Amino acid sequence: MSQTAAPETLSFQAEVGRLLDIVAHSLYSDRRVFLRELISNGSDACDRRRYEALTRPELAPPDNEYRIELILDTQARTLTVGDNGIGMNRADLVENLGTIARSGTAAFVKSLTGDAKKDLPLIGQFGVGFYSAFMVADRVTVETRKAGDEQAWRWSSDGKGEFTLELAERKAPGTSVILHMREDAGEFLDPENLRAVVRQYSDHVAIPIRLGGEKGETLNRASALWMRPRNEVTAEQHKEFYHHVAHAFDEPWLTLHWRAEGKIEYTGLLYVPASRTLDLFHPDRKHGVKLYVRRVFITDGEKDLLPGYLRFLRGVIDSEDLPLNISREMLQNNPVLALIRNGVVSRLLGELEKKAKDSAEDYTKFWESFGAVLKEGLYEDPPNRDKLFGLARFASTQGAGLHSLADYVGRMKEGQEAIYYIAGDEQAALATSPHLEGYRKRGVEVLLLNDPVDEFWTAQVGVYRGKKFKSVTRGGADLSKIPLPEGAEKKATEAEADMAPLLALLRLTLQDAVKDVRVSQRLTDSPVCLVADENDLDIHLERMLRLHKQIEKESKRILEINPEHALIRSLVAALGKGTVSEPLNDAAFLLLDQARLLEGEPIPDPAAFARRMTAVLGRSFGA
Ligand code: ADP
Ligand code: MG
User: Fold this and answer.
1) pLDDT grade for 28, boundaries at 50, 70 and 90
2) The domain 230-362: what is its CATH number?
3) What one-character DSSP code corresponds to residue 204?
4) pTM metric for this prediction
5) Which amino acids bring their CB within 6 angstroms of ligand 1?
6) In this structure, are residues 307 and 385 in contact, taking their beta carbons and an 8 Å threshold?
7) Any idea where the domains of the chain sit in the sequence?
């Protein structure tokens, strides 16, 4: 390829095309955000070059200074946002500016409808990073050279489906984003306006942002926000910094800014987002906290810095103790990092405890967003388990809202030894499960657990303040010690004796399909239900594991029958009269299938189900 080679034309990835279409054709309520996005990228690029230069000093700029420059050309109607950061090579340009590289973002864009009216509020919340340049520019040109490379590249696009790439020349590494301003975006060619926008949105940026080039006036304070005294940082500045570090567009729900001194020294500036982040359940469980060493960016998402169950955190930890030339590999198992991690965990949990106590309603919002993640700590972080149990909130049969375990225990009935729960996918379905009937009747509260993680901590941890967690869908959940309310008393032994012939018949008929048939204490309104044997996996957990191909076997369940139910009573009566076996046989299988349906399990033989159903209906109408 020679310097005069014709530009190559490439197409944007389909998702980028859709995003750009929406960006260009809809007026944002606040177009000024394009500038903070480009400045934010410049600042990230400088951080990355500075990190690379720690181990390869030849990559540092000659004066070792990093900066962002804004250059206006009112004649040509261009605004250039330049930086002397890491820069991009050809592959970087195609990957970073031609596709949506971040997994969460790609999924987000796929979910857009293409209807600007519907999508805009979503995008406004999400942000579009680099592409926001097309809100104000009808052509964007990027000239860039990667630190360590000789060759520079020019990327250019009008944001309509294609971009061009060609060789370019550039004296030093870094990137210039040249915006050819749209007719209606003249306000951004006014220096006074730029000054105001930078002060409002980008004052937190730790490197100087200069107007008019290298010697120009510096528009920001250019000091790391987290190093400023706590009381000097305004809520507005926190919000802007949070947008920058978190690539987020909501407001932080909680801001933690502190300096740890003593055995180790570090500064923490951490944010808990107000809403769930898109990558929260991504398998890599990466957190969003950047590690700095004495103001130099080292890495983000370092696994040893934070436990996985705090991956919703965003922000910065800046250590005074780690060596500046530490490589990412050397961070693993580093004792300083372990100390910081302990400090951060206890700081955050302490702060959450305070929130839970002082403003329960606000705390509920946090719990609804991130409780499902925090609960992973119950089995991953045994030393903090008690604290995490204290922070946990659950829906329960007690009524609307979320309840703490302490409250649950306080409401336990006389004779109740366990904390009862039912786990499943949907809270509404759980709340109406037949398994709950006997508990309701006795006034025993049951926790309704509908996060996948609930199956794991209940199985692995299992005890809170000496009280076992017991699933109401298991055989071992014993209600007999908990008295029924006055008037509801029953002669249970008599009922059991009546039931013996029916139990025997059902056991015989269903012997290949169930483990056992028993008289139930947990049912009041439904005739039957399925439960797991005490030592078998919980029904819902087993289904989940099968779905994820973790196990193949299917355990047989126990069918419980309700001795007080009219249908069961009439079966007992029919049996006493010596009714022919076929209708009873049909009834046995239909009852089992019904219990399966209520459990959300498929019916193994739908044809047989339909045949029996037809027979029973036919008989009842005298067919
Ligand atoms: P984000 O900053 O959230 O990753 P952007 O859309 O703002 O998303 O940028 C996309 C990617 O393009 C960045 O992750 C980075 O790799 C690259 N990039 C953008 N601007 C620059 C720049 N000035 N210097 C180097 N790389 C850049
Ligand atoms: Mg960005």
Assistant:
1) low
2) 3.30.230.80
3) T
4) 0.81
5) 37, 41-42, 45, 83, 85-88, 96-97, 129-130, 175, 247
6) no
7) 8-221, 230-362, 488-620
